[in-house]
Specification:
The complex is a heterodimer of chains A (114) and B (111). With 114 residues, chain A is an all-beta fold. In chain A, 0% of the residues lie in helices and 53% in strands. Helices cover 0% and strands 56% of the residues of chain B. Chain B is built from no helices and eleven strands. Chain B has strands spanning 4-7, 10-14, 19-25, 32-37, 43-49, 55-58, 61-66, 71-76, 85-92, 99-101, 105-110. In chain B, strands 2, 4, 5, 9, 10 and 11 form a six-stranded mixed β-sheet that branches. A five-stranded antiparallel β-sheet of chain B has the order 1-3-8-7-6, with no helix packed on it. In chain B, a hairpin with a 6-residue loop joins strand 9 and strand 10. Chain B is globular, with a radius of gyration of 13 Å. Chain B starts with a strand and ends with a strand. Classes of the chains: A mainly beta (114), B mainly beta (111). Chains A and B meet through strand 4, strand 5 and strand 10 of A and strand 5, strand 9 and strand 10 of B.
């Protein structure tokens, strides 16, 4: 069974640019969530999507956005990149029902902003 | 604001020894998750604890949940070097559909 796939694995961008990260969930999983991991702040929740609808959003500026497609694949976009956006971005998928939300994580996208 | 606190944050232990990692959280939740992360790698799900008194064991690791005390423990028995990693606990957020993670416990097992 294929796991959660994130692309690209590594990215280097310049301040002010924008970036789009992609996540393909485990087959049959309809919930996709995104997390940012940094040494200073740890793992922080960005947003979660289920059946193309955003159900929850973390405390991040509007420069961070996401969407989910009908095949459950998800993308997140960061506009006007700042140095502080350098992080490991992790995508997680789960089946979806609230009662059992075990999340399986992808390998992550390492974003470096210079 | 939901808080999840782990301690210790760093742990160096000898092979063969036992130790416990603690995870306290500030909300009423009966679902707690433990993950492992190796350097440069993603998060691997270890345990899902879904009710008060839940206890799960896998190899040298055993996790338990006390929802009344808002406390989960991850007990390591007879540690081996392969257990060296960072361990995170996480709790469902109050607003739903999200996990709130602790800062992680960086474990190093030495000969």
């Amino acid at each position: 069974k294929a796991g959660v796939t994130q692309t690209p694995r590594y990215l280097i961008k310049t301040r002010g640019q924008q970036v789009t990260l992609s996540c393909s969930p485990i087959s049959g999983h309809r919930s996709v969530s995104w997390y940012q991991q940094t040494p200073g702040q740890g793992l922080q929740f960005l947003f979660e999507y289920f059946s193309e609808t955003q159900r929850n959003k973390g405390n991040f500026p509007g420069r961070f956005s996401g969407r989910q497609f009908s095949n459950s694949r998800s993308e997140m976009n960061v506009s006007t990149l700042e140095l502080g956006d350098s992080a490991l971005y992790l995508c997680a998928s789960s089946v979806g029902p609230k009662e059992y939300t075990e999340a399986f994580f992808g390998q992550g996208t390492r974003l470096t902003v210079v | 604001e939901l808080k999840v606190e782990q301690n210790p944050l760093f742990l160096s232990m000898q092979e063969g020894k036992n130790y416990t990692i603690y995870c306290n959280y500030s909300t009423t939740s009966d679902r707690l998750y433990w993950y492992r992360q190796d350097p440069g790698k993603s998060l691997e799900s270890l345990f899902v604890l879904l009710s008060n008194g839940a206890v799960k064991q896998e190899g040298r690791l055993m996790a338990s949940l006390d929802t009344k005390a808002r406390l989960s423990t991850l007990h390591i028995t007879a540690a081996v070097h392969d257990l060296s990693a960072t361990y995170f606990c996480a709790v469902d957020s109050n607003s739903g559909y999200a996990l709130n993670f602790g800062k992680g416990t960086s474990l190093l097992v030495t000969p």
